[in-house]
Amino acid sequence: MEAATQEQASIDTLREGNELALKMFSGALDKFNIEIIDPANEKFNPDLHEAMSMAPNPEAESGTVLHVHQKGYQLNGRLLRPALVIVCQ
After folding, report:
1. Model pLDDT, residue 5
2. Coiled-coil region(s) at which residues (predicted)?
3. What does R_g of the chain's alpha carbons equal in angstroms?
């Protein structure tokens, strides 16, 4: 029982460390005017998004981003990396 408690404390410590690192990373992106492109449920834009595949979904409008596989980034309006997405047929 004691080992399980220590293991949970270790997991919580790792989670807190990861959250802090992510917060610091986000702060660095903001500092240098780097914008994250996360187009979930938005209309597909070929200038900012790269379609990995298309999938049918009766609940979504055709041409809408269904899933973001990898977020994209912009620096001062200039595309650094397009978002990799799956688009509704």
Report:
1. 63
2. none
3. 18
SS3 content of the chain, % helix, strand, coil (to 5): 35, 35, 30
Provide the CATH topology of domain 34-89: Nucleotide Exchange Factor Grpe; Chain A, domain 2 (2.30.22)
Which residues fall within 8 angstroms of residue 52, CB to CB, at 6 or more apart? 69, 84, 85, 86
Q: CA-CA distance, 74 to 48, in Å (whole number)?
A: 9
Q: What's residue 15's pLDDT?
A: 94
In this structure, are residues 83 and 70 in contact, taking their beta carbons and an 8 Å threshold?
Answer: yes
Q: Within 10 A of 49 (CB to CB), how many other CB atoms are there?
A: 20
Q: Which amino acid is at 29?
A: L
* pTM (predicted TM-score): 0.76
